[in-house]
Amino acid sequence: MTATPQDHTPESALILLVDDDPSVRFVLQQVLHYHGYQVEAVATIEEAEKIKRRLGPEAIGVVVADIHLTTNPRFHEGYTMYEHWTRLHPTLPFLLISGVVSSQRLPAVRTGAVAFLSKPFVIEEFLEILQQLLKTQNDRILRHEEIT
């Protein structure tokens, strides 16, 4: 299945939300649905991997992942998932989120290589970043289609 720009419009864009906090998942899922996005919300990397295998990475518009998917701030499971998935699927957009201040010192966050929001964040800013990531993804798809 080849993704097309219309696959990643707000009306049909799939946001894969990975956060271990059920209340964060619930609120973000409700906000995203309200704004017309499709959402797959999961708590673990394993669940996210199952969705990616089932749908294919090209079906995912943006991955929103909490950097810390456990209560131990020394573990950066969401960041590790970002690094691994980006190696496999370099054009898959990510938005990393975290309420742990030290997360801002992670290399890709510090250099701006990945979009990042510190919790708590303003929903409007969250939605604006998602729209920017989807637009960038659509532009890549269009350029790729023009080349091929």
UniProtKB/TrEMBL annotation:
Pfam families, sorted: Response_reg
Keyword Cell wall biogenesis/degradation assigned: no
Domain Response regulatory: 14-134
Top-level taxon in the UniProt lineage: Bacteria
UniProt record, GO biological process: phosphorelay signal transduction system
InterPro entries from the UniProt entry: Bact_response_regulator, CheY-like_superfamily, Sig_transdc_resp-reg_receiver
Claim: Coiled coil is one of the keywords in the record: no
Modification 4-aspartylphosphate, positions: D66
Keywords: Phosphoprotein
SUPFAM superfamilies: CheY-like
PANTHER family, per the entry: RESPONSE REGULATORY DOMAIN-CONTAINING PROTEIN (PTHR44591:SF3), STRESS RESPONSE REGULATOR PROTEIN 1 (PTHR44591)
Name by which UniProt lists this protein: Response regulatory domain-containing protein
Species whose genome carries this gene: Candidatus Entotheonella gemina
Lineage summary: Bacteria, Pseudomonadati, Nitrospinota/Tectimicrobiota group, Candidatus Tectimicrobiota, Candidatus Entotheonellia
